[in-house]
Amino acid sequence: MLEKKAGKQTSQLQKFPSIIATASIVGPKEGKGPLADYFDQAVDDEFWGEKSWEKAESKFMREVLAKVVSKASMAMDALDFVIAGDLLNQCIAANFGIRESNIPFYGIYGACSTIGEAMQLGAALIEGGFAFNVACLTSSHFCSAEKQFRFPLELGSQRHPTAQWTVTGSGGIILSAEGDGPYITRFTTGKIVDMGIKDQNNMGAAMAPAAADTIYAHFEDTGLSPDYYDMIVTGDLGKVGKRITEDLLSSNGIRISKLLNDCGLMIFDSKQDVHAGGSGCGCAATVFAGFLYDRLKKGKLNRILFVPTGALLSPTSVQQGETIPCIAHAVAIENTKGVNQ
Q1: What average pLDDT does range 10-37 have in this prediction?
Q2: Residues 239 and 305 occupy one common structural domain
Q3: Is residue 224 part of a domain?
Q4: Are 189 and 172 contained in the same domain?
Q5: Of the four, 85, 253, 271, 319, which is 20 to 30 A from 72 by CA?
């Protein structure tokens, strides 16, 4: 009997892994946005002293790991696992950024949902007694992502109104078997949802059905009402995707417009010319590690449903004319140990 399962997709935790520390490092544009005061560091150059954008992204990952371990007041070897991922080919930002840590490593890929996937897997390792401390990290970089997925920056290509701006930055989270919260109390693992969209410049529309599917499954599985949470926060749907998600859920009887926010809309100001909003593995990770964790620790928020979203495309799939499969992973985070305590 799966005593920790609720419905088909949701896991109800009993040991309640605690989020004991977070850290965030962002790029110049993010450092001038509305959440600037919540990030640990904002660099003033996308290269950050490196010879390429890709090397800079690995540095973001390496430095955020060191920073979050320091903020947790622990030694690096107190970590049982690092779970990390990014957008670059074969997750090279994580692989090269973490290679000198000497910590057992899981490299994962969930596109922009990766931080949610990492938190779920880290919580499961602690819940199952396989780990005591787990670090979850993701990163993205505007310049490297544009070069890989769209057009070289040198072309000066005009951006579509529905396009989103990949966040330059890295967020790190340490989960522990001990701590005074906030706690991961349950999580809902997403399914791949593909509605046939092929436009890589309209990622919000592609990801919205996956976000709606996971959020709907969460409330179906748990029997909770949406207003159980103070905020429901998607990863990087932007203006277009957020509106579609609201409509999809409303048509299924779940009305969350007053609760729903989106990291891609929170990290940039409308005056920063990011079109539909922010995106990238670093988007949800830095917003959570910076702003949302601060609000939870200070009691400004007590219960949130954190739902990073990801588009599982690649340059190869785009060149082959494939559609864009998407996924979203929901993580319930609370200052107390939840209704199932």
Answers
A1: 96
A2: yes
A3: yes
A4: no
A5: 85
Burial class (CB in 10 A: 0-12, 13-18, 19+), 115: buried
Q: Is residue 52 assigned to a domain?
A: yes
Q: Which of 288, 244, 250, 249 is nearest to 266 (CA)?
A: 288
Q: Give the structural domain span for 37.
A: 12-176
Max avg pLDDT among 190-199, 211-220, 316-325: 211-220
Q: Cβ contacts of residue 332 below 8 Å, gap of 6+?
A: 184, 185, 186, 187, 218, 229, 303, 304, 305, 306, 338
Residues 169 and 23 in one domain: yes
Spell out where the chain has E strands: 5-6, 10-12, 18-26, 41-42, 81-85, 105-107, 133-140, 165-166, 169-176, 183-188, 231-234, 260-262, 278-279, 303-307, 309-311, 326-328, 330-334
113 DSSP 8-state letter = T
Per-residue buried b or exposed e for 241-278, using 16+ beta carbons within 10 Å of the residue's own CB:
bbbbbbebbeeeebebeebbebbbbbbbeeeeebbbbb
Regarding whether 84 and 38 lie in a shared domain, the answer is: yes
Model pTM greater than 0.90?
Answer: yes
Last residue of a domain, one of 127, 160, 176: 176
What total of structural domains would you count in the chain? 2
Beta bridge partners of 26: 42, 169
Report pLDDT for 137.
97
Specify if 6 maps to a domain. no
Write out pLDDT tens, residues 267-298.
999 888 887 678 889 999 999 999 999 999 99
Q: What 3-state DSSP class applies to 241?
A: helix
Residue 315's CATH number: 3.40.47.40
Average pLDDT over residues 63-83: 97
For residues 304 and 299, what is the distance between their CA atoms, to the nearest angstrom?
12
Beta bridge partners of 80: none
Contact (Cβ atoms closer than 8 angstroms) between residue 279 and residue 245: no
pLDDT tens digits, one per residue of 150-189: 666 554 555 666 666 688 999 999 999 999 999 999 999 9
Q: Which of 146, 176, 206 is the last residue of a domain?
A: 176
